[in-house]
Amino acid sequence: MKIIPIPVLADNYAYLLIDEATKQAGVVDPSEAGPVADTVKREGVTLSSIINTHHHWDHVGGNEELAKEFAGVKIYGHKRDQARTPGITNLVDEGDTMKIGGITARFLFIPCHTNGHVALHFPNEKAVFTGDTLFIAGCGRLFEGTAEDMHNNMVKLMSLPDDTRVYCGHEYTVKNLQFALSLEPSNAKVQAKLQWAQDMRAKKAPTIPSTVAEEKEINPFVRVLNGELQANVKKQFPDVALDAVSVLAKTRQLKDNF
């Protein structure tokens, strides 16, 4: 599967996914139609599906225009988002599958950022598209769920094979790593990744993807049981209980104000 990140809006990514054997393609989170349509035409492929990880406008804004331009395109989203996703045709839930050409993906239900959020996992291609739930070294805001929901999402995503590539919805990596370093200043993996990410962004290059293995080393919302991270959270919230959910809740609160 060929994966083409498409920068859209200020800091979003849409992703064109191509089955090179059949020249069928799908797009994940097309907030803008124009850049996606241009990429489809440049690649000479047939756009057969749109996959929305969640209903926010900066992930679905291009749905209807693309559906008009590319006849017969199917639009996938979680069943809870039927009324909130423009043009939706295919309602999905945990464990449902879809195909792009001959390539099969399955949906993971990961509610919290929104209560209809999904990830799209390609087991054979070792890739997962996580929208605004799992970022490189970060997680999404808890708009429609709880810290427990987000912790459950992190556990679910971190249970994927370590070599699974993680493609997220925004270019937030530098700021996420700066925040991670504030909680784990001695984490050499975070230090190195931050330097790398700053170098990439100086060249206007994307910092995606990471991998599940790397997130386990650098992501504070995955590393909520790390001793250094817990100690620094406790300095700011002396009464916090040091269980995973409580630490994630306070870590997210710190990130919201970082």
Detailed description of the structure:
- The chain contains nine helices and 14 strands.
- The longest helix is centred in the C-terminal third of the chain and has 15 residues, at 188-202.
- β1 (2-8) and β2 form a beta hairpin.
- The strands form three sheets. A six-stranded mixed sheet has the order 1-2-3-4-5-6, with helices on one face. A six-stranded mixed sheet has the order 7-8-9-10-13-14. Strands 11-12 form a two-stranded antiparallel ribbon.
- 35% of the residues lie in helices and 25% in strands.
- With 258 residues, it is of the alpha/beta class.
- It has helices at 33-43, 57-60, 63-69, 147-158, 173-183, 188-202, 212-218, 227-236, 244-256, and strands at residues 2-8, 12-19, 24-28, 46-51, 74-78, 90-92, 97-100, 103-109, 118-122, 127-131, 134-135, 138-139, 165-168, 210-211.
- The model has no long low-confidence stretch (mean pLDDT 98).
Total strand count, please? 14
β content, as a range? 25-35%
Number of helices: 9
User: How would a textbook summarize the main sheet?
Assistant: 6 strands, mixed
Task: Tell me the structural class.
Answer: alpha/beta
Could you say which overall geometry the principal axes of the C-alpha atoms support?
globular
Helices and strands, in N-to-C order? EEEHEHHEEEEEEEEHEHHEHHH
Overall average pLDDT: 98
Radius of gyration: 18 Å
Strand order of the largest sheet: 1-2-3-4-5-6
Q: What low-confidence regions span 5 or more consecutive residues with pLDDT below 50?
A: none
Could you tell me how far the N terminus lies from the C terminus, measured between alpha carbons in angstroms?
A: 37 Å
